[in-house]
Design a protein that fits this description.
The structure holds two protein chains of two kinds. By secondary structure, chain A is an alpha+beta fold. Helix content of chain A is about 25%, strand content about 20%. Chain A has a two-stranded antiparallel sheet with strand order 1-4. The longest helix of chain A is centred in the last third of the chain and has 10 residues, at about 45-55. Chain A is globular and about 30 Å long. By secondary structure, chain B is of the alpha+beta class. Chain B has helices spanning about 20-25, 45-55, 80-90, 95-100, 105-115, 125-130, 130-140, 150-160, 165-195, 200-205, 215-250, 250-260, 265-275, 305-310, 345-360, 390-405; strands spanning about 40, 55-60, 120-125, 210, 215, 280-285, 290, 295, 300-305, 365, 375, 380-385, 385-390. In chain B, β7 and β8 (about 295) form a beta hairpin. Chain B contains 16 helices and 13 strands. Classes of the chains: A alpha+beta, B alpha+beta. The interface of A and B includes residues 17, 18, 31, 50 and 57 of A.
Chain lengths: ~60, ~400
């Protein structure tokens, strides 16, 4: 399972970072989200899905 | 007196100042809501997202400035590349990591305010707590003297709720307050240049470079002007709405008192349900079609965050407050390129304020014989929030505190 950020949609709200700091961060400019892991570990799956559902811009997508 | 109509939802029969959520939800039932003056209204969550992503949608008409400003506010009144340029400068200053070090000073300010009203056993939380706290935090953030607190409170009040019998009078009062703030900020910059640099936001603005050039004083003043307005009343209002909610819902209050770790989610849910900033305006630069609706070039559009946040197609059971709501892609901090710059500072302030408040004051109620009053004009807030502190738990806590100390 992986998560991708659509950087044309992401506006840097950083809700994903607040929810799952192990998995998300902001880029160096502090303006767009980046995913820190290629594969989402099983232990973080639920949180990751919640971050995807909670993104105000619909900028995150899960690929199974 | 009929309240001034500023929002499409105001016109609905279901409008209720204390509980406007039903009217906002009703707006989302309409396929193409329009105000009587012809203003197009965007209320549905999906339509709103698509509308805001469209490159022909702007936050300014290029003529008028928001909130009594003489010049375009940076970055609110700017669009396109110019807007992106300033957001690249400002975004990094308000990330969760950058605002985190403020937590301890926010906690200190919060406790000092509680110290003042706790012995009396009652408080009017707008004046005693929600009003001053965000302004104090902001003064600390900018590195200004706390003695200037009242001047800031007066300024934001004059701009957010301008006095005057007519719209012209209100506009004139708003502009006069704006001019005083420009003068004040210009003096601050002069003063700061003559002193050694410090570690605060104004020092950061003075040292920063944008595309190889220092910011001009005018740019810094325009940025600070926006931060003052955007950062003070909004957090005050959000905090007041949340404390009002907890005052009237003892079960929800008991849950966050028992488990403060619930607060981040609870805050998102109350941001959704209360939507302290109910709407914004956008301008369309060319004919576009969104979700099957036409938006002609040149039209002004009312984008109602508060309605999108209670849209049943995006939020199951939207009029029910569920403090642990799992899927909560609310737009309480707006969305699109102009999403709230300070959302993560606001979240931090709200969390710390609600944590400390409920640690110190776990049990309270609306003062018997009095009631909460709300305004929804401009920003939604519980503008009169009289509470009585119940003392039994408090004395237990202080005994425990003394033992643990």
């Amino acid at each position: 399972v992986r998560i991708d950020v659509d950087t044309s949609r992401c506006q840097g709200h950083a809700l994903c970072v607040l929810n799952t700091a192990e998995l998300f961060d902001l880029d160096e400019a502090g303006s767009r989200a980046v995913v820190l892991m290629d594969e989402v570990p099983a232990a973080l799956l639920d949180q990751a899905r919640m971050a995807v559902d909670g993104c105000p811009e619909g900028a995150l997508a899960v690929t199974e | 007196m009929t309240p001034p109509v500023f929002c499409a939802a105001h016109l609905l029969d279901s409008w209720d100042e204390a509980r406007p959520q039903e009217a906002f939800a009703q707006l989302t039932m309409d396929d193409s809501p329009v105000r009587p003056d012809g203003t197009l209204v965007v209320a549905r969550r999906e339509e709103l997202a698509e509308f805001l992503r469209h490159p022909a949608v702007r936050a300014s008409d290029g003529i008028h400035n928001n909130l009594g400003a003489e010049r375009p506010l940076i970055p609110l009144d700017l669009d396109g590349d110019t807007h992106r340029k300033y957001r690249r400068l400002l975004d990094p200053l308000f990330t969760p990591k950058r605002v985190a070090p403020l937590e301890e000073s926010i906690r200190g300010r919060t406790n000092s305010l509680i110290d003042r009203f706790e012995p009396a056993g009652q408080a009017e939380l707008m004046a005693d707590f929600c009003g001053p706290l965000p302004t104090q935090v902001f003064i600390d953030l900018l590195g200004l003297p706390i003695a200037d607190l009242q001047a800031f409170l007066d300024f934001k009040e004059a701009v957010v709720r301008p006095q005057g019998a007519t719209v012209d009078e209100q506009q004139a009062n708003m502009r006069a307050a704006g001019l005083r703030m420009y003068d004040y900020l210009a003096d601050v910059l002069d003063d700061r240049r003559s002193r050694p640099p410090r570690d605060d936001l104004i020092a950061g603005f003075l040292a920063t470079e944008l595309e190889g050039e220092r910011l001009t004083d005018t740019e810094i003043v325009d940025i600070c002007y926006l931060l003052v307005i955007a950062g003070l009343d909004t957090v005050t209002s959000a905090l007041a709405c949340m404390l009002a909610r907890f005052a009237e819902h003892p079960d929800e209050r008991a849950a966050v008192v028992a488990d403060p770790a619930m607060l981040p989610k609870a805050i998102e849910e109350l941001m959704r349900y209360e939507s302290p900033v109910p709407l914004g305006h956008r301008w369309v630069t060319e004919d576009i079609e969104i979700a099957g609706r036409r938006f002609p070039a040149g039209s002004m559009v009312e984008v109602v965050w508060a309605a999108a946040n209670v849209d049943a197609s995006a939020f199951p059971d939207p009029l029910n407050v569920d403090l642990s709501r799992a899927r909560n892609a609310h737009v309480g901090f707006a969305a699109g390129p102009h999403r709230c710059l300070g959302s993560n500072l606001a979240r931090l302030e709200l969390r710390v304020a609600l944590e400390e408040f409920h640690r110190r004051v776990p049990d309270y109620e609306v003062t018997p014989g009095q009631s909460i009053s709300y305004t929804n004009y401009g920003v939604r807030a519980a503008i009169h929030l009289p509470i009585s502190l119940r003392t039994s738990r408090r004395s237990e806590d202080s005994v425990l505190g003394a033992t643990n100390a």
